[in-house]
Amino acid sequence: IAELDRRLTALENGDINEITFMNSKEASRAFRRFKGDGGSPEVQAAIMTVRIHNMHNHIQKHKKDKHNYRRLRILIHKRQAILKYLKKAAPERYHVCLDRLGLDPRVIEDEIVI
């Protein structure tokens, strides 16, 4: 019975909303600076990165979805603004955050063209 419950509630059986929620929660847990931290720039950038990856995958499948394409561009620019703020406020945390997110500094400093 326990094995059946585990398989029924496993993440691979979840829908995209559950998977996105769990990925966002895991990103928040990985980037928070203290327990309950949900507003620091690192956490916000990590959650936005998860959302950007999911939206990018969606747009790869649905190329004519112009609404979500625009939402993706807005989300990328919001992440860019948060990381620019972090670079100005705490440069050492900025570089650590970029390394952990796997982003190139050019993504933040240059104009983004999709």
TrEMBL record:
One of its GO terms (molecular function) is structural constituent of ribosome. This is 30S ribosomal protein S15. HAMAP family: Ribosomal_uS15_B. Belongs to the universal ribosomal protein uS15 family. It comes from the Eukaryota. GO terms for biological process: translation. Keywords: Ribonucleoprotein, Ribosomal protein. Coiled coil: none annotated. One of its GO terms (cellular component) is cytoplasm. Gene3D superfamilies: S15/NS1, RNA-binding.
